[in-house]
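ugh finaly. both done.
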Amino acid sequence: MLSFVLVCLVDHFCAYLVAYGKDGEKLTVGDYVLFATYIIQLYVPLNWFGHTIDRFRKILSIWENMFELMKEEQEVIDAPDAPDLVCSRGGIDFSNVTFGYSPEKTILKNVTFNVSPGKTIAIVGPSGKSLRILIY
């Protein structure tokens, strides 16, 4: 925004010199057009460069946050006897899955279902009953 204002001020100053300049300081219309063309040719790449630097700075900030997140310890740890997750057929099998945010408050108890490859299922229930955890 500031660079746009500066370009406008310089442009108006040059227009003033064309219209009201003294003999030694007066610009011709050709000089004005040439100067305005140079300003535009410089403004566009410099503006693009500024946006590129801003994007790069944002990306570096995102990378920094990502690496900090990777250093965090996992809060959810599999049970010692949990089987490995195997994706061989492309389907999803839930077999006796129990889940809760704390041991005292179990939300899912022994849930079992199968989703065949290429099929879609819908899980319905009352609002606020933690059905969303199956989507994650």
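ok and the 2nd:
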Amino acid sequence: FWCMFAALRLTPALNAAALFTVLPGIAAFYAAILVRERIGKHRTVALILGAVGALWVVFRGDWNLFLGLAFNKGDLIFLAGMLAMGLYTPLVQRLHRNEPTAIMAFWTMATGTVWLLLLCNWSVFQIEWRAIEIEVMGGIAYLAVFTTIISFFIIQHATLRLGPTRVMSYTYLTPAFVVLIDWALGKDLPSAATLPGIAIIVAAMFVVQSGAVQTRPTPAEDNGSTTS
């Protein structure tokens, strides 16, 4: 998360959105190594097509906009964050010891808070909180509750049941949901050129989510089978 927020100071949101599409592929690569998740040819193709569809929506079907994309130092920082984030769901499945999801999520966020305090050099305690506008505080509260606490809980809960690749593949839907939310807030819908990208995402998601995904047994399952 630190890499993502730090990168957005140096790179446009469009660049970040484009880089975000590589996250499911990174997670699938880690999952194949750490938990021996078998992706298969069909899911591999679907992951690639999902990234293409997400990019299509991000750039609103404008090929010239895609060709004009210029990468910078901020993009490298954001990509480093993607490499770290892609490791998260495979590690959740690899290191799970049958503890409740709420406890696992709590300690993940607690230790993450410590690392963030170290990275910000404790400057958070020097902020004049009373001078911050109410809209900004509302945004901070939203990020803390919905995109951190609730999201971490859901991701960890779902990873243990669906597998790392399936869970991370849902991020392909983010651009489509942004379009829908913008429309609900009164903004104009994008051009019809965006619709093929959404269709590609839906088709790719159907392939990725279908069928069984085989993974290696968790350490707890290994111990149970040994005992029996």
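summary for the 2nd one i guess: The chain has one domain: 2-219.
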